[in-house]
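Study this fold:
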Amino acid sequence: MNYREQYDNWLNSPALSEAEKEELRSIANDEKEIESRFFSRLEFGTAGLRGIMATGLFRMNIHVIRHTTQALAMLINEEPGQDKCVAIGYDSRCSSDEFAREAASIMAANGIKVRIFDSLRPTPLLSFAIREYGCIAGINVTASHNPKEYNGYKVYWADGAQLPPQHAAVVAEKMEELDMFTSIRKMDFEQGVKEGIITILGEETDELFLGHVMAQANDLQAVKKVAEDFTLIYTPFHGAGHRLVPEALKRLGMKHVICVPEQMVLDGTFPTVTSPNPENPEGFALAIELAKQHKADLIIGTDPDCDRVGIMVRNDCGEFITISGNQTGVLLLDYLISAKKRAGTMPVNPVALKTIVTTEMARRIAEVNGVVCYDTFTGFKFMAEKKNALEESGEGKVIFSYEESYGYMLGDFVRDKDAVTASMLIAEMAAWYAGQNKTLYDALLELYEKYGQYSEKTLNLQMPGLDGIMKMRELMTALRSNPPVEIAGSKVVVRRDYDTGTETCVASGAKSPMELKGSNVLRFDTADGTVAIVRPSGTEPKVKVYIMTSSETRAECDEKIEKYAKWAQSLA
């Protein structure tokens, strides 16, 4: 069906409420809006679904949730084994609880047992529950750090990581085959609970999770040493970190954890911020105000589903500044290595994992300290795969995994970004440096002195709407068919296409295979030691351009970043 036929099909379906039909009638004369809502389904991939909440085929709503869950249930029932179970969680976004209960009802109707949390929980807790209870899969209703208009549907597999590509492809195929409205099997939620096919998870699971979180602590004495004087401000940005992050910090030994009261209110409209993303400094305005009032040492903020964490620290002038995801990652990596060596807990053959768009400073820190560093594609499912492969083969033990977009994975109990554990370790690290009369800003400057000057910048080229999807495709096609020979006045010496897994020497034209392949990412290495990576976002309507460089001085790094940023902006 074309988009107009899909619109009529939805408008005439008895599955829609009168309110939903009235919403569709209100756009009857807006052809562009109708096309944007019905030109296609939301694409189901390894990250599940994510989209703007509204009625329509290319939107997030109860009908898309039902349809997707039915397809996933069919995949699960085709897998070998009996007595299958799925864990389900959700965040504070509008309709997240309703979508989660609906997914539980459909799984139950398909004969699949469900363990669903009694209220919103951090994303890493869902990953933990899948592993802890031996579930075959998990569903998390969240749009992570996206603006309030969005919601999403993340699917996990039995190892606690996001759905493997082969399974995602099966779900997508079944969604094509199933009728949006008539193919859905559904059971009443309360009936499912009464019959025991739906089990409610509560504080008992939180306690199991927190036990693993606290086991990641390295130096409780360092915290105890400064606990009377060290003050920490925390904000969950109206989201799922509101209980467990402060609890983990208190169990660590932090005596002065002050939460931003306005942002402890669970509200999917995120009324105090333009965007609930800890990457955006403006979201920390209330936290900074509170930190100044209490003369705090550190600010920690987690996104609505509590898988990402951002921090602000005092600089040499005493003002609070943002520490980037890359910088937080290298601070943590260096600290973990030293802390584990001090405690005698460094494993044999230690390994650090980072993504291809994460700073090369991480590799430098790892290798100087005898830790092997591997690259993976962006996404913690790839890190989980690499971790599993290395540890199952005995090749290495992963001590830390991270990506530049404020995500960190530690320990063996989750296979996704974990802002609860990361927040606890950031606090421990800050306390250890405070015991030496240093801030995390001081520590970062010391790392640059020790390992060299590195600088990174990520540019988001926004391409919204149906036209934006086409622009994203056209940009990547153009960069492949007519690749730049020079960027910002520096010659391109090596091109890497991670889709085909091919590395090309520009001077000779010689091609060689790479270990990583199968992702729509392009990398250009230039003669001045700068790397530019172009990657369409898998969850948002934008193309991301990553610029990474190193040099003898900070000024040289900044100059390169500025030049390459202008090139990146010219791509939009």
Notes: The longest strand covers residues 453-462. The chain has a mean pLDDT of 96.
